[in-house]
Specification:
Helix content: under 10%
Strand content: over 45%
Strand order of the largest sheet: 1-2-3-4-5-6-7-8-9
Order of helices and strands: EEEEEEEEE
Oligomer: single chain
Structural class: mainly beta
Radius of gyration: 15 Å
Largest sheet: 9 strands, antiparallel
Length: about 130
Amino acid sequence: MVPGKPPEVTEGTAEMTMVLGGRFLEQHAKGSMMGQPFEGIGFTGYDNYKKRYVSTWMDSAGTTIMMMTGTWNEKKKSCTMTGMMDDPAFKKVVKVTSVQKMIDDDHQVFEMYSPGPDGKPMKTLEIAYTRKK
């Protein structure tokens, strides 16, 4: 998360389940972050009224609920979402962007972008998912 420094690499698990009649994808994630246990819960679905994907996320690293909205790009097989997040490093609310790329039926990549020290978007998180068989 610091420009010029190597990224922290950890392993974890995520259980993803369709809930509420298939309307939302619920994710429970567990792992570690900065040497501490980490746990998160998120929900993603399609809002028929807004005609956009919606997502919530909360985790053990903070006390806020992040909400994002976005669109699916069929050609790129990805969903790009934007929202606002309380950033404890900068002690302010910042714009964040996530990109969920569907590689194939068993692999996906999630990227998160937040403002870097210069205020420009910087990749702050990348998660590579592999389906357990």
